[in-house]
Write a structure and sequence with these properties.
The protein is α/β, with parallel strands linked by helices. The protein is built from six helices and 17 strands. Helix 5 packs parallel to helix 6 (258-264). The longest helix has 17 residues, at 63-79.
């Protein structure tokens, strides 16, 4: 457990979940009841009255469980009369369903933000949130959000050794991450939902209208989940004569064998931030949280 002088900075109290040890010393107890429900205890909760509180909590993997824990913690802080509650959630789950495609679907991105706001959160801080598609401050679902982008440190990871590389996005959604580097982006078209228990819209086409022949290519996106987009993009670059393909993303979920399949498709290297910690997390998010911590 942290000593009091380490959990308070002036009038601010810092709280860290157990999986955020790389960002601060954990000082929250998270357990399960025998029936699987979630037990949360913040021993320093009494110190939060009248204070600004920064709560740092990762919500992936096991996003459903982690979101319940987040809501419980925010609600407890609100009830304890915290002056302001800032929640730092490096990867925000349920951010990808921000549009209604079929009648009867839920807009999960908006619902999750509304729940976080309703629990008592004053500001959510996250990284390259899928439904925002720009850096800066926005209001979504009634929730104030600071969206920090990792585009520069991710690109600099490769540009430091490949200064003449062509920078591109594998689809239009990540254009904001490469606009200062030429704005080259591929055009992706998804099909209808496939049958089965898993909700998946396969990629029908991925078109590239820029020249990559004999060039080092850096592909950057906000996230890699199943890897389908990056796999298609890497393969397309190799087919068009790229000298090397270097992939980067803020969030690396790497579902199934995504990482191995990306390398097999022609990616020479894959790197992500540690917003979600993985074996290829090379770019730390902590330096970009200094103003909140």
């Amino acid at each position: 457990m942290q000593k009091e002088e380490n959990v308070q900075k002036g009038n601010r109290v810092l709280l860290f979940s157990g999986d955020c040890g790389d960002l601060g010393t954990p000082n929250i107890e998270l357990k399960n009841f025998p029936d699987g429900e979630k037990y949360v205890r913040m021993p320093i909760l009494p110190q939060c009255a009248g204070k600004e509180v920064t709560l740092v909590h990762r919500c992936y993997p096991e996003q459903d469980k982690s979101l319940i824990q987040l809501l419980l913690m925010i609600s407890a802080l609100k009830n304890a009369q915290a002056k302001k509650i800032i929640a730092i959630v490096p990867y925000l789950p349920y951010a990808r369903q921000d549009k209604i495609k079929l009648e009867g679907e839920t807009k999960s991105s908006e619902t999750i933000c509304s729940l976080i706001k309703g629990a008592g959160c004053d500001l959510l801080v996250t990284f390259d949130c899928h439904f925002i598609k720009k850096e800066g401050s926005v209001n979504y679902g009634g929730l104030a959000i600071d969206n920090i982008t990792m585009k520069d440190p991710l690109l600099n990871y490769y540009l430091s050794t490949h200064p003449d590389a062509l920078v591109a996005a594998p689809d239009k959604g990540a254009t904001y991450m490469i606009v200062m580097h030429g704005g080259n982006s591929m055009k992706k078209v998804r099909g209808e939902y496939s049958e089965g228990a898993t909700a998946v819209r396969p990629i029908e086409t991925l078109e590239m209208e820029f020249d990559v022949k004999d060039k080092d290519v850096i592909l950057v996106d906000d996230m890699i989940a199943s890897g389908g987009t990056m796999i298609r993009a890497a393969r397309e670059c190799k087919m068009k004569g790229a000298k090397s393909v270097l992939c980067a993303a803020t969030h690396g979920l790497f579902l199934g064998n995504a990482l191995q399949e990306m390398l097999a498709a022609g990616a020479n290297e894959v790197v992500v931030s540690d917003a979600i910690v993985s074996g290829v997390s090379r770019v730390p998010i902590k330096p970009f949280l200094a103003k909140y911590l």
